[in-house]
Write a structure and sequence with these properties.
The chain has 214 residues and is mainly alpha-helical. It has 2 domains: 106 residues, Zincin-like; 106 residues, no CATH class. Strands 1-3-2 form a 3-stranded mixed sheet. The longest helix is centred in the middle third of the chain and has 20 residues. Bound molecules: zinc ion (ZN). The site of zinc ion has 4 residues, from helix 4 and helix 5.
């Protein structure tokens, strides 16, 4: 399929992108001054489906790769998705998608583990509190190389938040940076242990969660 692009003026989105980029450059410790990300707007659900060559779910509103961020038009947000539009929500969406691009750079192009990828993008875009707080971890680790469904969003953000609150940002960035040479879930868990000093499993994560709630 062939698509036609034309430039669009939207000061609101332009300013959102600028603000998000400045905040993300600090968060990720990456200077990104040249060839900065483009934003490409999908007008309708039909546009999204054509672009993706598949029927997409009504919650699907954006994606990112390379230096491109794709988003559903803010003006059709309510009509073409199950989400409710607000400037704040749209800003966080832009920041989330841009953050995926920073992840891609730091990880040397690796997308997995998906829970870590989604978790840190949710965290860096201040989107974690949009989910109900959890009492324990029981499923995020199933989303290593499996990204199906939207359920994994719910725990992954809290897992990343917990790691950052307890051990700082430096360790998690180190973990993401090491992904470029990691080729399996087993290798990932070994690297995790080397960096954090404990095994990555629900038992350890829940222990940490309980400790922090006291
Ligand atoms: Zn995402």
């Amino acid at each position: 399929m062939i698509f036609e692009l034309k430039p669009k003026r939207d000061t609101l989105i332009e300013n959102m992108r600028k603000k998000a980029m400045n905040e993300l450059k600090k968060f990720w410790g990456i200077r990104w001054e040249k060839n900065i990300p483009r934003i490409i707007v999908w007008k309708t659900r039909k546009d999204i489906n054509n672009f993706k060559q598949q029927q997409t779910k009504d919650w699907f509103i954006g994606e990112a790769n390379g230096r491109n961020v794709f988003l559903l038009d803010r003006k059709n947000f309510d009509k073409e998705s199950c989400h409710k539009y607000s400037n704040e929500k749209y800003y966080k969406l832009i920041k989330h998608e841009l953050s995926h691009l920073f992840f891609e750079i730091l990880s040397g192009g690796k997308e997995t583990p998906y829970w870590l990828n989604e978790g840190i993008t949710l965290y860096s875009a201040d989107q974690i509190n949009q989910f109900p707080p959890i009492n324990g971890f029981s499923n995020f680790l199933t989303y290593h190389s499996n990204s199906g469904g939207d359920i994994y969003f719910k725990e992954s953000g809290f897992a990343v938040e917990l790691l950052i609150k307890n051990f700082g940002k430096r360790k998690i960035l180190k973990l993401i940076k090491s992904l470029s040479t990691i080729n399996s879930e087993k290798e990932f868990k070994q690297t995790f242990k080397k960096i954090y000093g404990f095994n990555l499993n629900y038992k350890e994560m829940n222990k940490l969660l309980k400790k922090c709630r006291k």
